[in-house]
C-alpha cells in the first residue's frame, strides 16, 4: 500500500461539480493499493500517517502530529501510485490491486481513519477534482512494504 501525504491548510474533492469531501487544516492522503497488500498494510500506514510529526509546534519545529492537533484527513483513492514507467513512457499499472479487491480495502482504510480523526473521502473509481492548499509545502511518500522492513 502506498500513500502520498501532504500537509494542507485545506483540501476538497469534487465529483460532477459537487463537493463530496472537504477539510480544513490536516492531511491530504492519496492512497493506492497494490497486489498482495493486506489489512496489516492498512493498519501500518494509518498509524504512521496520523502520528507523523509534520506540524509545527509553538517554536516552529515540526513536532506535532494530526492526532496531537486533532486535524482532519481527506483520503483519495489513487491506483496510479503503482504506475511503473521503467520501460517506455506509458505507465504500466500491473502492480496495482484489482479494483474489486482494492475498493473494500480503501473503504476499510477510510473507516479506520474515521475512528481516529475527522475523515472525509473521495469516491472509489470516480473521476475526481482534488483541490488543496499545501502548507509548507510538506509532502511525504510512504510505502507499507518499506515500513514493514523497518519495523
Outline:
The chain has 151 residues and is of the alpha/beta class.
Number of helices: 4
- CATH architectural group: 3-Layer(bba) Sandwich
CATH topology-level name:
D-tyrosyl-trna(Tyr) Deacylase, Chain: A
CATH homologous group name: D-tyrosyl-tRNA(Tyr) deacylase
Oligomeric state of the chains present here: single chain
Order of helix and strand elements from N to C terminus: EEEHEEHEHEEH
Fraction of residues in H or I helices: 25-40%
Briefly, what CATH class?
Alpha Beta
Report the radius of gyration as a whole number of Å: 15 Å
Quick one: overall form?
A: globular
Taking pLDDT < 50 over at least 5 consecutive residues as the criterion, the unreliable ranges are none
Main sheet summary: 6 strands, mixed
Average of per-residue pLDDT values? 96
Compute the number of structural domains.
Answer: 1
Helical/strand content category: alpha/beta
Euclidean distance between termini CA atoms: 15 Å
The fraction of residues assigned to DSSP E strands is 35-45%
Count the E strands.
8
Question: How would you describe this protein?
Answer:
This protein is of the alpha/beta class. The chain has one domain: D-tyrosyl-tRNA(Tyr) deacylase (D-tyrosyl-trna(Tyr) Deacylase, Chain: A, 3-Layer(bba) Sandwich). About 25% of the residues lie in helices and about 40% in strands. It contains four helices and eight strands; from the N terminus they run E-E-E-H-E-E-H-E-H-E-E-H. The chain has helices at about 40-50, 65-70, 100-115, 145-150, and strands spanning about 1-15, 20-25, 25-30, 55, 60-65, 70-75, 120, 130-145. Strands 1, 2, 3, 6, 7 and 8 form a six-stranded mixed β-sheet that branches. A two-stranded antiparallel sheet has the order 4-5. Helix 1 (about 40-50) crosses helix 3 (about 100-115) and helix 1 (about 40-50) packs across helix 4. It is globular and about 45 Å long.
